[in-house]
Design goal:
Elements: E1 9-12, H1 18-31, E2 52-56, E3 60-62, E4 70-72, H2 87-97, E5 105-111, E6 117-120, E7 132-138, E8 140-145, E9 155-159, E10 164-167, E11 176-182, E12 194-200
Antiparallel strand pairs: 1-10, 2-5, 3-4, 5-12, 6-11, 7-10, 7-12, 8-9, 8-11
The protein binds succinic acid and fe (ii) ion.
The site of succinic acid has 10 residues, from strand 8, strand 11 and strand 12.
Length: 205
């Protein structure tokens, strides 16, 4: 089996047109003034990740040295509730996932030129039946997706600005990561780099 054949991995190339990408990126950066990007740190070691993160919606994914990976309703530094999710991403969730309940978390990952994300599975959610929906904006990412075991074969998929992909079904538990981003492949973000929005249902409806 090649990893891309994993049941439940879907890619909609160019699902958002340029105008929709611009509007969404601008809205996210505006909301991030209230919920500033923070440096996520690995559990136990406290080593910083290379991406910067913030969240939108009732719950947000955070990680730090002391408490590790978790969802919480407030920003780790300001302690304020996360801003609401843009209506456009909620509508996209309804349309593409068909899931019966709205997403609770929109994790916003900001990748500079050197940022990457190691191979991992998304496993901090209790609503296992809900897919994860991922929206890419800005520079192209070299995304890697494998199977449900870390040792399974992987395949590389380029995610360009406006692409939307879904990890549902068997792919919901698939290992995935970002090998690197390709600087200069998009002019969407004023300072370059890549924004990735991942929408998740955390609690069973
Ligand atoms: C993630 O797995 O949280 C991010 C994936 C991506 O940036 O495309
Ligand atoms: Fe992930």
């Amino acid at each position: 089996m090649s990893a891309g054949d994993l049941e439940g991995f879907k890619l909609w190339p160019g699902r958002l047109d340029r105008a929709a990408q611009e509007a969404l990126a601008a809205e996210v950066f505006t909301l991030a003034k209230r919920a500033p990007f923070f440096i996520p740190r690995m559990p136990k070691s406290g080593a910083p990740m290379s991406v910067r993160m913030t969240n939108l919606g009732p719950l947000g994914w955070v990680t730090d040295k002391e408490q590790g990976y978790r969802y919480q309703a407030f920003h780790p530094e300001t302690r304020a509730p996360w801003p609401d999710m843009p209506t456009a991403v909620r509508a996209l969730w309804d349309e593409l996932t068909g899931y019966a309940a709205p997403p609770e978390a929109c994790l916003v990952n900001l990748y500079g030129g050197e940022a990457r994300m190691g191979l991992h599975g998304d496993g901090d959610e209790e609503a296992w039946d809900a897919p994860v929906l991922s929206i890419s904006l800005g520079d192209t990412a070299v995304f890697r997706i494998g199977g449900v075991l870390r040792s399974d074969p992987t395949r590389s998929v380029r995610l360009a600005s406006g692409d939307v992909c879904m990890l549902g079904g068997a792919a919901r538990r698939a290992y995935h990561g970002v090998d690197r981003i390709l600087p200069g492949t998009s002019r969407l973000l004023p300072k370059g780099g890549r924004l990735n929005l991942t929408l998740r249902r955390v609690t069973p409806p």
